[in-house]
């Protein structure tokens, strides 16, 4: 099973920036723990502050990955191009946000991505990524059971 985590702008600063919102742990440290817990999964991680690189990664992985976990950061609220990229690929995408975007500034309440994703997880900190991964694992098991 192949799952790709894609993080957008400023998420490279997790553990350093706005710790009261995003926590004290770096994503790299969290990702190492997530990989250790799920050794039988091909789990990869990509981060970019550049919108076009995120789109390119979606295009690159979006026809072979069993699932994509996407935290597009601020692009969530601005990028029709990312929404179009999600629509163009066949891999299911789960939208994840570390903070509760609905408890923050009003401009963060709208996502151009949500309607193109299989679901949205927000406000649960880094554990949102684990929950998204669990969703894809459970979906795989359910799909296997239906085929049997």
TrEMBL record:
Pathway: Metabolic intermediate biosynthesis; chorismate biosynthesis; chorismate from D-erythrose 4-phosphate and phosphoenolpyruvate: step 3/7. It is an enzyme of class 4 (lyase). The keyword Magnesium does not apply. PANTHER family: CATABOLIC 3-DEHYDROQUINASE. It comes from Rhodocytophaga rosea. SUPFAM superfamilies: Type II 3-dehydroquinate dehydratase. It comes from the Bacteria. Keywords: Amino-acid biosynthesis, Aromatic amino acid biosynthesis, Lyase. One of its GO terms (molecular function) is 3-dehydroquinate dehydratase activity. This is 3-dehydroquinate dehydratase. It catalyses: 3-dehydroquinate = 3-dehydroshikimate + H2O. The active site is at 22 (proton acceptor), 97 (proton donor).
């Amino acid at each position: 099973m192949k799952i790709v985590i894609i993080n957008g702008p400023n998420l490279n600063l997790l553990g350093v920036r706005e710790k009261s919102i995003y926590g004290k742990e770096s994503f790299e440290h969290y990702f190492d723990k997530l990989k250790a817990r799920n050794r039988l999964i091909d789990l990869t991680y990509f981060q970019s502050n550049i919108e076009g690189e995120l789109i390119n990664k979606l295009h690159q992985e979006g026809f072979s990955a069993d699932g994509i976990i996407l935290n597009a950061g601020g692009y969530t609220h601005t990028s029709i191009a990312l929404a179009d990229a999600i629509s163009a690929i066949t891999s299911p995408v789960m939208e994840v946000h570390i903070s509760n975007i609905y408890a923050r500034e009003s401009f963060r309440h709208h996502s151009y991505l949500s309607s193109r994703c299989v679901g949205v997880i927000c406000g649960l900190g880094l554990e949102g990524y684990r929950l998204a991964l669990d969703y894809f694992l459970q979906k795989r098991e359910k799909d296997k059971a239906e085929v049997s």
